[in-house]
Amino acid sequence: MDALVRYHWSGNVRELQNFIDRAVILSPHSVLRAPTSELEPFSAHKGSNLPITGLEEVERDYIVRALEASNWIVGGRNGAAERLGTKRTSLVYRMRKLRISRPTSSSRNGAVEGRALQD
Q1: d(Cα 33, Cα 47) in Å, to the nearest integer?
Q2: Which residue of 9, 28, 38, 50 is surrounded by the most CB atoms within 10 Å?
Q3: Domain extents for the chain?
């Protein structure tokens, strides 16, 4: 509540309404989790040459969380597209646009090799 009160709502009621709408859409369960980090002046991540707007960054994080929850499976049953309620092709398009790619497999290979060595 403090962050909502302190923020200068340049768009007045409409900006506040849009913020609450996004919070409802992006909240994972029945508990409302408002992205109060959006209320601070936006600054791009250091080291990123990609100009991303605040809303695109939220969308990117949301997609990455769905991909991680589905073990980076994009389509099919229990895939990220199904979790997000979108078509697989639409998700692939958004991933390309937001430059989302599967993390390198070096960390996963280490886990697999470690298991192989222990067996």
Answers
A1: 28
A2: 38
A3: 1-41, 47-102
